Amino acid sequence: MQLSEYRWSGNPRGMHNTGSYVPLQRERYTRLQLGWVKLVTGGEEFAADCGWMLANNITPVIRIYRPAPGAMPVDQTLREQWGVYASYGVKWFEFYNEPNFANPEWPEDMVPRVDHRNFEEVIKPLCENWLIFAEYIIGTLGGYPAFPALGETVGDNGALQWMDALLGYMRDYQRDRFSAIARSGMWWATHPYALNHFYQEVPGQPAVPRPPEQYNALEPGWHFEYPYDPYTQAFDPGRSVWGGTPSTPYGDPNGITAMGIALNQRLVEWFGIGPLPAFGTEGGIYPLPINEAQRPDPRFPAYDRTAHAEATVAMFNWIASLGPEWLFGMALWKEDEYYNNGLPAVPRLEAVPQIARGGSWPTWNKPFIGPGPVRGQPNFHAVILAPGLEPRWFFETAQSYWNTFRPLVTTLWEFIEFIPNDRSLGVTLIAPPDMVDSMRQAIQEKYPHVLLDVLIASGDLSGVLEVLNARVWGNRRFG
């Protein structure tokens, strides 16, 4: 299936319900101008509500809750309950949820052994039982099965390691079955919690955050593309979802787009398929500023209740207008917390119109020079060599890298300003230690949206060659 063939509202704004068997207040969803509602259900209790949602252009997503499911198999009760929802027109279904969290997602006796390296007890049964779920949703119900959402953890047992273990199993043991599912309606469930990894820029200065008290959802300059945003790239050049810098040895799978980027990149690399839709079945700007401002990452500005409201509205309109084409939206976590705590985001969402997918977003009157922000992978890639490094050295010594990725190779960077604002650029800068800072500053001050991937060339350049060859083996253009 192409992205355009999936049936959904075209509106990325969503909310996660309070929980199973808690009656829904339908008028909330229309006042909030929602396009999605994620429903955790105990059984069939929300089936009629789903019919109402679809009649009002709201797309429901169903996950039938079972306590500590682990890698449980599909049973007849689940099949019957999914079938009831499908009879009301529901197409989007989830099964497992955050299997990388031992508690509360696995039975107590399995908790000590929940690890992505536990092939026989964890990865294999998860994959085999998920395949049965997906084939039933597609083949019997004509629906769309979600690949399980992972909690966006970081470390040697983090989300990226779990992703590679699960997709690696499919690649090595069930390639044909998985590929057929991926081509027939599969989608990525993600849990994109933004933390404070967002900001609104000072007008015309993409790498400089505004003071949060000046945030305004109706003005341009918002950045939700972490870790590819200009501010992050200014203090940690080359950071990506995969890591790419000394401060990110296990990658950086946090933010609105990160896990979707990683999943779709693996799908292309390992299966030659994609991209597939990603929908955040829970997420948003979290933790919520209920009683005090939140600043989980001290490098980014804090946000209070008012800033949270402005940013939440802006986030959904950013997704609709500037987000990757495969990012279909997200469901805020969660309904009772927003309403019971009187968050200003609720009336702000009610008041500001939600633009549809592909809609326009305001821009500063004075356009910036050169390429626009990177959203996922850059449209173009250039290798820029510092003075004294000859292009001939690159083509002869790093031939494997060039043959694989075919970047532009140059010692000049004036060409950057001729790249239009609706395209993006990644630059692999190869420079000796004494020139790195000056070259980085010269490029990023003039072209703040460039994704800068820095390699330090020292001595005989063998270190650079080793890094480039490792990227070829990993089929990874950047660090």
Written overview of the protein:
The protein is an alpha/beta fold and 479 residues long. It has two domains: 3-351, TIM Barrel; 380-473. It contains 16 helices and 15 strands. The chain has helices spanning 26-31, 47-55, 76-87, 102-105, 119-139, 159-173, 175-182, 230-235, 258-271, 305-321, 335-340, 345-351, 391-397, 399-405, 433-446, 462-473; strands spanning 13-16, 36-41, 59-64, 92-94, 144-147, 187-190, 199-202, 205-209, 222-223, 278-283, 327-332, 380-385, 408-410, 425-431, 451-456. An eight-stranded parallel β-barrel has the order 1-2-3-4-5-6-10-11, surrounded by five helices. Strand 7 and strand 8 (205-209) form a beta hairpin. Helix 5 (119-139) crosses helix 6. It is globular.
Short descriptors:
four-stranded parallel sheet, TIM Barrel, alpha/beta, 15% strand, globular, eight-stranded parallel β-barrel, single chain, 16 helices
In brief:
This protein has helices spanning 26-31, 47-55, 76-87, 102-105, 119-139, 159-173, 175-182, 230-235, 258-271, 305-321, 335-340, 345-351, 391-397, 399-405, 433-446, 462-473, and strands at residues 13-16, 36-41, 59-64, 92-94, 144-147, 187-190, 199-202, 205-209, 222-223, 278-283, 327-332, 380-385, 408-410, 425-431, 451-456. It is an alpha/beta fold. It folds into two domains: 3-351, TIM Barrel (Alpha-Beta Barrel), CATH 3.20.20; 380-473.
